[in-house]
């Protein structure tokens, strides 16, 4: 299965980006193709529906999502919502890109967990005709620590990631024929 993992932060060392890289590595270990799109490395112009001209980074994002079988969206939680850079990227996409694809929402928050950003992501995914994975991953506080190898420092986070990825993959496999 081909899975695109979008790291929705403008911060080069964001814990949400570290988490998405860890998820992608686990997906690859499970035999899947996982592409990470880091929005801090793929600057997009502010979405404007009146502008028809497409920029190369927008086309790269659209191609990655369109060609995927499933999607992971990762965001830091800013002011009780998803990052502006991820929202802007999602504004460039439409139901053709998400239709009947399972989407796993992931967040990292300075506080305990990023539930508000995950709820907002799931609302957007529904409006894009994606299929929300009922499981999600949120890390917060000291759960945002990673080893030098990019592995979460807390065994609880590792277990949560593995359990959620298994659920996500099973759901994506069972819905891929829709």
UniProtKB/TrEMBL annotation:
Pfam families: FMN_red (PF03358). Residues 1-140 form the NADPH-dependent FMN reductase-like domain. SUPFAM superfamilies: Flavoproteins. It comes from the Bacteria. Coiled coil: none annotated. Belongs to the azoreductase type 2 family. This is NAD(P)H-dependent oxidoreductase.
């Amino acid at each position: 299965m081909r899975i695109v993992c979008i790291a929705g932060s403008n911060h080069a060392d964001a814990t949400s980006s570290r988490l998405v890289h860890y998820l992608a590595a686990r997906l690859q270990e499970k035999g899947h193709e996982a592409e990470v799109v880091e929005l801090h490395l793929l600057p997009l112009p502010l979405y404007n529906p009146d502008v028809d001209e497409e920029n190369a980074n927008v086309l790269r994002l659209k191609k990655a999502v369109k060609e995927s079988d499933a999607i992971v969206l990762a965001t830091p939680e800013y002011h009780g919502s998803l990052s502006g850079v991820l929202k802007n990227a999602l504004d460039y996409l439409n139901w053709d890109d998400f239709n009947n694809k399972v989407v796993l929402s992931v967040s990292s928050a300075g506080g305990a967990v990023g539930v508000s950003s995950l709820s907002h992501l799931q609302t957007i995914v529904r409006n894009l005709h994606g299929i929300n994975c009922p499981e999600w991953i949120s890390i917060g506080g000291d759960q945002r620590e990673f080893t030098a190898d990019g592995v979460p420092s807390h065994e609880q986070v590792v277990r949560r990631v593995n359990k959620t990825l298994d659920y996500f993959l099973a759901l994506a496999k069972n819905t891929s024929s829709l």
